[in-house]
Amino acid sequence: MRLPSFNYLEPITLTDALNLMEEYHGRAQPLAGGTELLPRMKLGLTHPTYLMSLKEIHELKGIKSNKNELYIGGMTSLREIFLSTLLQQKFLAISEAAGSVAAPPLRNMGTIAGNLCQDTRCFFYNQSYFWRRGLKPCFKAGGNVCYAVPGSKKCFSVYQGDLAPALIAFNAKVRIEKKGSSRIIPIEELFSGKGEKPIVIADDELLTQVIVPIPEGIYGSSYRKFRLRNALDYPLVSAAAFLAIDSEKKVKSVKVVLGAAGPAPVIVKEAEDILKGKKVEESAINEIAEAAYKRAQMVDNLGLPASYRKKMVRVFTKRAIENAFNSIK
Amino acid sequence: MVDFVGKDILRVDAFDKALGSILYGPDQNIEGALWLLAKRSPYPHARILSIDTSQAETIDGVVRIFTAADIPGENSFGIIPVTKDQTLLAKDKVRYIGDAVALVAAYDLKSAKEAVDKIKVNYEELPAIYDPEESLKKGRILIHEKGNLLCSSRIIKGDIEKGFSNADIIIEREYRTSRLEHLSLEPEGGIGYFEDGRIVIIASTQNPHYDRDDVARLLGLSPDKVRVIQCGTGGGFGGKLDISVQGFIGLAVYHLKRAVRMVYSREESFLTTAKRHPLIMRYKTGAKKDGKLTAVKVDIIGDTGAYASYGLAVIMRATVHATGPYEVENVYVDGKMAYTNLPWCGAMRGFGVPQIAFAHESQMDILAHELNIDPIDIRLINAFKKGSVTATGQRLDHSVGIKESLYKIKEIRDKYSWSKKKGERLGTYIGVGVGSMWYGIGNTGVPNPSTAQVELLPDGSAILYTGAAEIGQGSDTILLQIASQRLGIAIDRIKLVRGDTLYTTNAGATSASRQTYISGNAVMDSIDHLEDILKAEASEQMDLPSSELIVKDGKIFSIKDSSKSIDIFELVKICNKNKVRVIGEGRFDPPTIKLDPETGQGVPYATYAFASQVSRVEVDTFTGFIKVLNSASAHDVGKAINPKMVKGQITSGVAMGIGMALMEEFVPNKTKSLKDYYIPTSMDMPEIIPIIVEDKEPTGPFGAKGVGEPALIPTAPAIINGIYDAVGVRITHLPANLERVIGELLKKEGA
Fold first, then answer.
1. Are both B201 and B338 inside the same structural domain?
2. How many domains does chain B have?
3. Contacts B682 to A, Cβ<8 Å
4. Where a domain ends, among B246, B272, B298?
5. What is the CATH number of domain A62-117+158-213?
6. In this structure, are strands B330-339 and B293-305 parallel, antiparallel, or unpaired?
7. How many Å separate Cα B244 from the centre of its chain?
8. Which residues of B touch A127 (CB under 8 A)?
C-alpha cells in the first residue's frame, strides 16, 4: 500500500500555519507525527488534498510549567512526555499513558495533539480498499449501515487514544486556535460522543497546547492499559485514575476515566460520590468498578468480543485506582 | 588447517541484507513491466456461469484480460504430483473466497484495479461446507468430483486392545488447533520476461525447480522453456512452496512476450495463500502406574480447505509422529484429510507435527500429573533410545538425542529453581511446562533427492552450484561451509550459484528441514566425485595408481611417499588447458522405505531430530493474559555446522511458537490483515536459552541433521503445560488466547 498523492505545505510559524488553514478553507489537513494519519491515507480512509506538516513549528514543541499549571506544546513527542521527570513525578498517569502508546519508534514520531485528535476505530471500517470495495459504505464512511451492529442507526466505532483518559483524570484543558482567535476548553469537550465524527475541532482550527492544572496536596495517579501484546496494540480497555487524599488518608477528590469504552473517553462520575471523604477500601473500589462496567459501551468491533472486554473494565478500573493509591508516597 | 564446520561463520548474506542491497520479490521491477492483478471469487462455493470482460477491456491502460480459456496446458497445479487439484484460473467452479477467476495485465496498478472491478462474473451459488467432519458425511455436496476426502493415512503396530487392557490408567482427550498464516517478511511477488526463447520468472520461492515444472505444465511447454530464478526471499515457512504469482506471470509472458510484474498485497497474501492445517486430534493413551506407555490410539481429522496442496504430506507426517518421541508397543493411528470451502491449507513449518506434538505432549503432561511423576521423568521413562522401534517399525540405530535433550533442560530447570509459585501481583501464578518432540528429516517415505555440483577454477577458487532455495534459514552459508571444509579453501574463494533452474539442478524443496542433511550430503558427494576426477588426473601426472593417492589440504599426496604431491589447482590448470572442466557432480537421496498403505509400516525418514523445551509462564487469572518468562530448548541437531545459526533457528522457533500457543488464529472471513491477526512482538519474548545437543548422525554431512522446523515444535506444548502447572486449567484448543484461558478459569472456579 502506498500513499496517494497530495500537496505538501510546511509552515515554520504558528501564524503561518493558521493563515494557511484559513487560506485553504479548511482543506489543509494538519500533519503532526503522521503515525495515525498516514496509515489511514494508505488504507484510502481519508484523501486530503493538502497536507500541512507542523513539524517545523518549534513554538509548538516542549514542556513548560509555572506554579499552577503545566503546558505541553501540541507537537511535543510522546517519547518526551513519557521520559519527562516532571511528569513522572507529578503526573504519573500521563507519563504512563504516553509510554504505553504503540512502540518506541512510533512514540518518537507521535505527538500529544495527534494522539488526542486520533479518529475512532472499528474492525469493519479500518480495512484496506481491497476489502472494503465490495461493501456498501458504513456510517463512518459516510453511508448508512453499520456492520458491527446490524440494523443500528449510528456508528459504534471506538476511541482508543491513550492520552485522553489520563489527561481528563487531571482535569486538563486544551487550547484551540484559529486565525485571529484562541479558546481553551476542558479536554472532555473535545469529544462529540459520536463515532462518525468524534473530535469537535473545526476544519480551520488547530489544537496547539495542552494545559494541566498542578494538583495541590497529596495525590497519586495511574494509567492501566489492557492489550493483547506488550507493544503495538491500541487499548482494548484502559482506565486512568487520579486520587487526592488528606492527612488522615481520606479521599479529597477522585477521578476515574475509561478509554476504549465508547466513541469518547468515559468519565465514571459515580467515583466522587462513592469515595469522597472515605478511606480507600476494597468495597468502595469494587463499587466504582461496577459503575465503570455499567458505563462502558462495547460492541463486537475490536479484536476481542465485547463481553470479554466489558469484564476487563472492572479489572482495569480496580487496578488503576489501586495503583494510583499505591503511587502516593 | 582452518576449520569451517562447527564455527560461527558470519552468514554470507549478512552484509547485503543489512545494507538492503538484496532485492526481494516485491522489489523486483523492470522498466515498463505490466502489472498483473487477479479477479477473485467473493463466494466460498459457486458455479461460474459466465465471465464478461468486455467492459473491463475498454479501460485505458488495460492490455489484456485472461481467463481459464487462455491456459494452453493443464489448468491444474499442486505440489504433490498425485493431488494436483488447484486451478490457476477457475474454469467451472470456485471453491473458496479468493479463488482466482481472471487475470488483468495493465500498464499501471490503478487501471488493473479498475478493470478487476469491471469484470462481470455470473455465479450460481452452491451450498458451502466449513467443517471437515461435516464434509466427510455421506450425501453432502461435493467440493471436488472425486469426493471430499483428500486422503487418509494409518499406522498399526502391536495389538491396541491388549495395550489398553494392560494399562493402569487411560487418558482420553480431544485437541484442536487453528488455521495459521505464515506471515513471511515480504508477501509473494516477482517479475517475468521473455528471453532466448524462454519464459523467465524471478520470484520469491522455496522451490524453483518445482515452480518451473508446474508453470511449464500449465503452459503446455517442456520444462526447459521455462527458467525460474529465486530472488531474495525474506521468509517462507512453507507458504512459498506452492506457486503463487509464478503461474500468473508465466501465463502473461507466454501470451504477451513482454515483461510483467505481480505483487500480492498483504491482504491478498492472507486470503489466497496456504495456511496451517487445523487438526482435530482424539487421543487415547494407556500407561502403567510407573509411567510406561502401553498403548496410543489416535484419530485425526484435518481440514485442508479448498485444495490439496501438501495435505497428503501433513496427514502422513502427523500420523507417523503421533506417539511423540516415545517407545510404544501398541499403536493405532488413523488420519483423514477433508476438503472444505475455506482457505486452502498447505505446508507450514513442521507439516502437522507442531499440531500433533501439542496433543501428545498434553497427554504426557496429564499422565505425569495423574501418576504424580515429574513431567521430565515420565518422558525419560518412555523416550526413544538407540535400538528403539518406532510406530512404523523403524529401528533407530543412531543419533537419538532425546534423552540428552531432557537431561539438559532438567539441569536448567533445577539450576534456576523454576517451579510452580505465586506471582508478584495478586491473582498471578507462575508455572513450568515441558514439551518434547521428534521430527523426521526430509519427505515422508518417498524419494526426495538433492543434487549439486562443485567446480574448481585455475585461479584457486571454486564454484558451488545448488538448486537449494535460501529463504533466510541459512542454507547458502551452511552449504558453503561444508564445501569449504572439504576443499580446504576459504569460504570467500567459493562462488555460489544458487536457485536458477538454467544453471543449477534440482535440490528439491527448502522444506522438511532437509537442506542441511540432504543438499549438504549432495555437496559432500559432489566433492567425492571431484576428488576422484583429480586423483585420476594426478595418477597420470604422477605416474602412480589412483588407489595410492589421497587428497589433503589442497594437495594430492601419495600414501606411500608424502614427499610426492601435486597441488590440486595445478591439476585444474592442466585439465583446463586440455579443455576439460573440473566439476564434481553430487547426489543424495535419503534411504527410506515407502509406508505400507494398510499398516503404515516402513522407514519414513533416514534420520530424526529430537528436542525438549522447558518454559516458565505467568498467568494473570483476572485477564487470562499469559506472559512467557523464560524458556530453555535443547535440540539434538546431530552436528551444528554453524552453532550461532542453529541458536538463531531455536530462538526464532520459540518466538513463532509463542504466537501459535497464545494468539495466532486465522478465522476465515474475519481475519484480513495484520490488524486482526496477532503475532508476538519483541516485547512479548521471554529470556531464551538455546542449547545444542550433538548426537552425530553417521549418514549426515559431518554428522548434521536439521533444525529449521524442530525449533518451533516443542514451544506450544511447553507453554500450555506451563499454564496447567500454574493454574490447573488445561487448554485443549489452540491458541490459548485470553478468552479461552478466562473461560477455562471460570469453568474451574464454577466447579
1. no
2. 3
3. 231
4. B272
5. 3.30.465.10
6. parallel
7. 17
8. 672-673, 675
Q: Which three cell numbers stand for residue B303?
A: 481440514
Mutate to test the interface with A, among B186, B425, B622, B627 (most CBs of A within 10 A): B622
- The last residue of one of the domains, among B564, B588, B612, is B588
Provide the CA B294 distance to its chain's centre, in angstroms. 32
Q: Which residue from A134, A303, A312 is facing B676, i.e. has the nearest CB?
A: A303
CATH number of A218-327: 3.30.390.50
Each residue of B127-153: pLDDT tens digit? 999 999 999 997 779 999 999 999 999
What the block records as the C-alpha cell of B6 is 562447527
B706 shares a domain with B621: yes
Contact state of A229 with B684 under an 8 Å Cβ cutoff:
yes
Domain ranges of chain A: 1-55, 62-117+158-213, 218-327
Specify whether B456 is located in the same domain as B575.
yes
Interface of A with B (CB under 8 A): 1, 103, 123, 126-128, 130-131, 133-134, 226, 228-233, 303-305, 308, 311-312, 315
pLDDT tens per residue, range B186-198? 999 999 999 999 9
Nearest CA in chain B to A130: B267
**Amino acid at site B603:** V
**Residues B254 and B307 grouped into a single domain:** no
Q: What is the average per-residue pLDDT within A157-177?
A: 98
The answer to whether the CB atoms of B681 and A133 lie below 8 A apart is no
pLDDT above 80: residue B370: yes
Task: Give the domain CATH number at B522.
Answer: 3.30.365.10
CB-nearest partner of B267 from A131, A303, A311: A131
| Enclosing domain of residue B291 | 279-444+596-750
- Segments in B616-714 forming alpha helices (H): 643-662
- Same domain? For B654 and B556 the reply is no
Residue B345 has pLDDT above 80, yes or no: yes
- Classify the complex by whether its ipTM is higher than 0.85, answering yes or no: yes
| pTM of the full structure | 0.96
* Per-position DSSP letters for B188-206, written without gaps between them: SEEEEEEETTEEEEEE--S
Say whether B42 and A134 touch across the interface (CB within 8 A). Answer: yes
| Residue whose C-alpha is closest to residue B621's, from B719, B726, B717 | B726
- Would you call A103 and B623 a contact, using CB atoms and an 8 Å cutoff? no
Question: CA of A312 to nearest chain B CA: how many angstroms apart?
Answer: 7
Report the mean per-residue pLDDT for chain A.
95
Looking at the structure, tell me whether residues B607 and B720 fall in a common domain: yes
- What whole-number distance in Å separates Cα of residue B503 and Cα of residue B552? 29
Are B351 and B437 a contacting pair, CB within 8 Å? no
Fold exhibited by the domain A1-55? 3.30.43
> What are B452-503's pLDDT values in tens digits?
999 999 999 999 999 999 999 999 999 999 999 999 999 999 999 999 999 9
Residue A291 to residues A115, A161, A285, Cα–Cα distance (Å): 27, 21, 10
Say if residue A2's pLDDT is above 90. Answer: no
B396 shares its domain with B470: no
What does the pLDDT look like over B711-738, one tens digit per residue? Answer: 999 999 999 999 999 999 999 999 999 9
pLDDT band at B670 (very low <50, low <70, confident <90, very high): confident
